[in-house]
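Objective 1b: paired records.
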Amino acid sequence: MADTTPTSLWTLCLLFLRLGTTAFGGPAAHIAMMEDEVVRRRRWMTRDEFLDLLGAANLIPGPNSTELAIHIGNRRAGWQGLLVAGTSFILPAMLIVMAFAWAYVRYGSLPQVAGVLYGVKPVIIVIVLQALWSLGRTAVKTTFLAFVAVASLALTLFGVHELLVLLAAGVVVGATRLTWRGLKYRSFLPVSASPMALLLQTSTAVTAPFGLWPLFLFFFKVGAVLYGSGYVLLAFIRADLVERWHWLTETQLLDAIAVGQVTPGPVFTTATFIGYVLGGTRGALVGTLGIFLPAFFFVAVSGPLVPRIRKSLIAGAFLDGVNVAALALMLVVTYQLGRAAIVDVMTIALALTSAVILFRFHVNSAWLILGGALVGLLLH
């Protein structure tokens, strides 16, 4: 039986501050740690209730593990718990990433820092590939979904905007499921036959002046529409901030990813690092607020609707389409970043060694990153 006694805000704050400080290893690790705390140790909810909240987090845009923390706070202490749990989980990661960003801006050209990043970057590429493989085995459930994934990959390579690719994939799969409900995705409706696909246009690079308000709007947009793993964030950042607006270089993006991997907490704190690099402390706060604010809103709205959302046939099919399109985005961006990270014999060796350790022995990614950092320091 679950403990139905309301939880104090202070207890929620302490728990999620600790989780936000120690939760290495990405969303899957975060979720496992939360399950251990709130189901096994504290018995705040049953495992079925926990899975209900996790399912709800997967059906709305934004960072899944952060939204799960917000859901738990909402379930245990209402809207105040919602704010306390979410903020407490995000705050430690934000402060740690800001400290890294300050050191990066001030000392980024020093050999020691360059060595750490040199060793960490190839490891990160392998970690993203491992996440992509794991997610793909779950997401690509049918031949039709595999077809949508390949079509999404092709559209992305041809320069179609990421948001349109995600939306088109979701609409096509949802419409197909609605039309062929009894055939379980056996129909091969081409993506080009979708009215949404006819609206897709390739994007062009346009330099835009930097400002805090455009920075907030960019990360708010990403937080409001991004489905799937936090790694999909990398595709959005590269497309707009690197290629279209030229606010970041390819190297700075890789460094931001590296810091996001080295530090605990949500991968979305990459926005904190980028905000600091572009606009100092104010930029870091603006980027963090922009990318996480939609999560609080979506959880507050969707929390009471969890039972209906989980049972919806069309919502589930839409999510299937979005997930496979997100995997296509992840594959493209991983390939592009890999070309910048794996540049010589030593980085090839680091990547291959990391792949063997990660895929064969399932070592926590935090240890691999630490190992890569140490190797980079020794070599530099």
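Objective 1b, second protein:
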Amino acid sequence: MGEIGAVVECGYFFAGEGARYFGNTLPSANPDRLTYYIRESAGLALLITPFNNPLAAIAWKAFPALLCGNTVVLKSHEDVPYIGVALAEILKKAGLPDGVFSVVQGHGYNLGTALTGDKRFGLISFTGSVATGKIIEKAASEQKSRFVKLSIEAGGKNPMIVCDDADLERAASSAVSSAFVDAGQRCAALSEIFIFDAVYAEFRKLFLEHTMSLRVKYSTAGRACPIINERRMNQILSDVAGAIRSGAVLLTGGYRLSECHLKKGYFLAPTVLENVSPDSDFSKKEIFGPVVVLYAVRNFEEALKYASHSKYKLASAIHTQDINRAMEFARRHNAGVVQINGPTHGSEPHMPFGGAGLSGNGWREPGTAALDFYSNWKQVRVDAF
């Protein structure tokens, strides 16, 4: 219901942007010339969306794409195929003409490859894994007759720094929310926490208390957080087991939940590790599950160094009462989203979201920044008659 509410707000936002579809008027060195810019549609848009937050992921792409006058072909993730169909039915009932919004179904390894190589698409927006993003990037680059406008958002390895002056209760609560929302299956979910030595033991105690108080229930009355499928569940468990074999200490979790009401689903206990090297493969890999690692650091410079070691550059957070330290982190840490005294995840319809490095290729969704991807600029010059 929270996701549906966010999608409704996103719809209202972009509906309002239809009345603010701004161009630009520019001064010219020629006194007898009027120069202005207008937006035009980019053509046929291919939208490829992930399994997590599936309706919101579609809305972030489809609403600005339609506002800009594009026709849309949507490929939902194969694990959530009916979300796109449901939205298409709603749009049809709302009066969208036939052929403007189409949904196709299939697995990425065959249908996705065919779609991304189709020369009819003028732009492709993809949210998903790095591996798939690289395949799409290669397919788009091999088109001989045109350049394809390509937006990629491909995950994160998101750090949080907890300083020695932080409100530790607030930091622990934010960290638990960041790490275990949707069982960690969000690109902006928290992956690693760098804690100053002076407060490590106290923060560790609070964080574990909050983590172990979570209740996983397969119902609307509880905190429902299944893993999307058995393959992903087994991969997460394998990654955790590998970290433990390499010397990591398991503080809690690390196993499949098998209580009677959960045994038919793919539920994992929220998992916390420590004694993991920041330079290990585990510290650099996106786990995409309910797994977080605690690291002790000496000071701000060491925390910033390790928080910046990942090739993912999506989201980050710092907890401190020092405004200078907070602003220094915001200035020096390379990420698409920097949060001060809050969780790593979360966005709003008007806020541009995305990252750099392995997290994305620079475009932003949603917000007005998305309009620059889904439309093309045309310069119009009018000389005196």
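The chain has two domains: 2-154+360-383, 158-340. DSSP finds twelve helices and 17 strands in the chain.
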